[in-house]
Structures are given as C-alpha cells and as structure tokens.
Amino acid sequence: MRMFITRIVLFLRKAYHWTIAQLAFGFLTALKIFPADAAINFADRLMRWIGPKTKRHHLMQVNLRNAFPEKSAAEREAIALASWGHMGRLAAEYVFLDRLFDFDPQRPGEGRVEVSGVEQFLDLRDNPRPFIVFTAHTANFELLPVAGAAFGLYVTVLFRPPNNPYVAEKVFDFRRKRMGKLVPSHAGSSFALARQLEHGGGVGVLVDQKFKKGVETRFFNTPVRTNPLLAKLARQFECEVYPARCIRLPGNRFRLEIEPAITLPRNEKGQIDVNATSQVLNDKVESWVRELPEQWLWYHDRWNIKRKI
C-alpha cells in the first residue's frame, strides 16, 4: 500500500512539473510571434502584475526590508515591482537571445549590446591560462558566456539546474548550444571545474546563490552562508579571478562588463584565505546590487529565511 501511494505521489509530481513546463514553453513560443522589443516589454508588464500576487512577493519584501532598512516602504515596493519586471524580461529574452547579442567590435555602441573590457576578453583568449570569472544574477547574466563564446573565449560554466526537470532539460540544451561547456551543480562538479583549470582553461561561476552550508559571511550586513568553491579553486591553482556583470540599459539594451582581476586576501602562510575571499565576493556583488537593486533577483531566498516567515 505504501509503495502504491508513493507511486501516485511521484506521478502527480511528475504531471505537475510537466504541466508547468508546457505552460512556460507555450508562453515563450507565443512570444516568438512578436518583435523582440514588444515581446520583452509585454513580459515586463505581465510579471509586474503577476509577481505581487504570489507568495514569493512577501519574501521579496522581507529581503528588501532587511537589505535597505533606510528606504521607505514605497521605495522598496517600487524596487520589488521593477525586479518582477526584470524577471519577466529575463524569461522573454531567452527566446531572442541569439538576436540580442549583436556586439560588433568594429562598430561598438551601434547595437543592443555594448562591452566594457574587450581588451580583457582578448587577453584571456590570446594568452591562455587558468582563470575564474564570477558574476551574479544581475540583469541578463546569460549574455556573459554568450559574449565569451562570441570572442572565441570558451569558459566552462557552473550552473544550478531548475527544479523542474522538464524545464531543466530545455534550459540545459539551450545554454549548451550557445555558451560552451556546462557543468550542473552537484557533488562532483568541483572536480570537473578543477580539471578545466588544470588544463589551462577558464571557469565561470555564479556566486550569489543560496547555499545552506559553506563559510560564514555577511551580505547586506546580514549573516549568510557562502559557497567556498571559487575560493578553494583559486587557492589550489593560484589563478586570476575576474568580476563580470551584465547591466540592463534603457531601450532593451545591455552593457557587459569584465573588470580587472581582483587581489585576493591571503593568510599568514601566504595562501589564499578561503573565508576572507568569500567575503570579498559578497562585497563585490553587494556593490553591484546597491547600484542597481531592481536588476537583482530579490525573490531568491539568498539568506535562507523562507522557513522563518
């Protein structure tokens, strides 16, 4: 009897995931009918309407209140609505990603995408060496590995698959065709990234994801656990670490930035300090988010507080 109930529960869960995936795929397919600007703007307005009606909106409000206690409730609500719109845009931009990245080094500033730090891209490509690029869930972060591939700089990207297995499969296939090698986040992912660095390649990591274990750090002056993987890899291979981000500009345009390599803190033995480095990463991401708070995913439970509210 217990086995029968378990099978029913698994079937219902699978059916639920399949239904949600089909609705999402249907919506995105429908967007292809329209011009990119119209579809992206529509997705923005739609999510600004849907988002506040979901349970995640309350989590978003709590996150914003903790991060920006100095702001008024109206200011935080405006950031929340803009963040929902940003998520709508991010989903719609998947449909048009091939068309959105139109950067031409011979005609910079003429397309949708501008790039700051082209010389850094070219240096990493033309002078091969192990390196790590880190970013955060700001604006359309998916454009960064696309840009790298466009410059002939292929980076092995660590990513966390969506919980929905049908969506995860679709997203993985989409990313793989445009972004080079992908490594799903799981127990053995660190070995795959280490092999890439050992062979003189580059690795890309999102560093602002929820992590229940890890080192104790602070983010927006609030305790948070941070994945030490990047710091450990940097210490093991003594490789350069570069911050990079995407910024959403008016008119459905983007600016991609890759900054110079950062200096990582070291301990008394001269080794890269894992805990201190993890804090440096948080500080960099926090500076980005403070600059453009509406372009970060505030519905994300970075501080692991969902169970408390």
From TrEMBL:
Gene Ontology molecular function: any one: acyltransferase activity
InterPro entries tied to this protein: LipA_acyltrans (IPR004960)
Top-rank taxon: Bacteria
Keyword terms of this UniProt record: Acyltransferase, Cell inner membrane, Cell membrane, Membrane, Transferase
CDD domains xref list: LPLAT_LABLAT-like
UniProt GO cellular component terms: plasma membrane
Classification via NCBIfam families: PRK06553.1
Chief location bin: membrane
GO BP, sorted A to Z: glycolipid biosynthetic process
Location relative to the cell: Cell inner membrane
The protein, known as: Lipid A biosynthesis lauroyl acyltransferase
